[in-house]
Design a protein that fits this description.
Blueprint: H1 2-17, E1 32-37, H2 51-61, E2 65-68, H3 88-99, E3 116-124, E4 132-136, H4 141-144, H5 151-158, E5 162-165, H6 182-189, E6 195-200, E7 203-204, H7 206-215, E8 218-222, H8 229-232, E9 243-248, H9 253-262, E10 265-269, E11 272-275, H10 277-287, E12 288-295, E13 301-308, E14 314-318, E15 323-324, E16 330-333, E17 338-344, E18 351-364, E19 367-376
Parallel strand pairs: 1-2, 2-3, 5-6, 6-8, 11-18
Antiparallel strand pairs: 1-9, 3-4, 4-5, 6-7, 9-10, 10-11, 12-13, 13-17, 14-16, 14-18, 15-17, 18-19
Helix pairs in contact: 2-3
The structure holds zinc ion (2 copies).
Amino acid sequence: MKKNIIYILLLISIFVFGQEPRKFFMPPSEKNIISTDLHIHTVFSDGVVWPSVRVEEAYREGIELIAITDHLEYQPHKEDIPNLDKNRAFEIAKMFNQEIDRNDYINFKVPNEKLIVIPGVEITRDTPNPGHINAVFIKDANEILQKDSLSGVIKANNQNAFVFWNHPMWSQRDNGIARLADIHKFMIKNKLLHGIEVVNFDTFSEEAFSIALDENLTILGTSDIHGLTYWDYQIDLGGHRPMTFVITESKDTDEIKKALFKGQTFIWFNDMIIGKEENIQPILKSNIVIKSNGYTKDYTSVKINIKNKSCVNFKLEYLGKYSFYKNSKFIVVPKYGEIDLLIKTIKKRKKIDLEFKVENALIGPKTSSKVKYSLLLY
Ligand SMILES: [Zn+2]
Ligand SMILES: [Zn+2]
């Protein structure tokens, strides 16, 4: 009798709650991948929503860490919200996050654990001196509000904040071409700047990507959301905001911060992943899984199965000498899907090496990552 009740409850819960939420990407073994958005506005600067809405959005979209980063200096709602204590937006978001029951969001894609909300600010200066700079993991926003160009950045660094250059590709300057000014070179040389946005809102910058690689800055993609993510990214139609994934040893907040300083990130933007080769490679290896199902009965071809465990439709180009029975060298492995290939090996082989270019896994400007697999055939 008891067993029956448990069984019925299980059926009801599957019916009510639907499927288990899917992971965006499978982490490499013994690592974690944390989904983040480190650039978010509220009514406490030029955004149009209360901080608690940012927390709800993050739960609905499966984001595990957000930073509230209102402009310190630009306060267009000052008449209605005097905002004397610049830490308030963060405090409200944090308080709301502690109070809500994550089970209320179970119908949406949710992370397994509680959302982490961290404090931040956007230090707002004229472009390019040095333009807009975000500081996250700060201790006190009020202290960072300073008059001249660099003292806010220095104060943030004194608080051990992680500091990055926002939207260096802004069209207001150099027609959208990101370029280091002397002040940025100074900041990089003195370790005052640790990261750079390669993706901001709906823009992607190959020049910013080059700067990140040349100067060894952490690669970031953020929403810079001011309105509602549901409107800007059509979340209800399956869209998503740009996310930075941080590859960490554990889910501990200090470990996430450490990993950001070490540059262990990649971006999910539209249907692409973008990052340093050393971070993209293990992600491709843990998400594109290839196995051999042996030769067909007449030994004319080998059956290969390619599984994609991620949220990206991987676009592969086969780089080897063989040809396929049914496909061209261009192959799309759909997100969370799989495909079968028949490879014509001419004569019977024990082992086969396969190499693919992954068109939408970018490791540099106009450069895609490659993956190699060695398969035993029987
Ligand atoms: Zn900005
Ligand atoms: Zn902003």
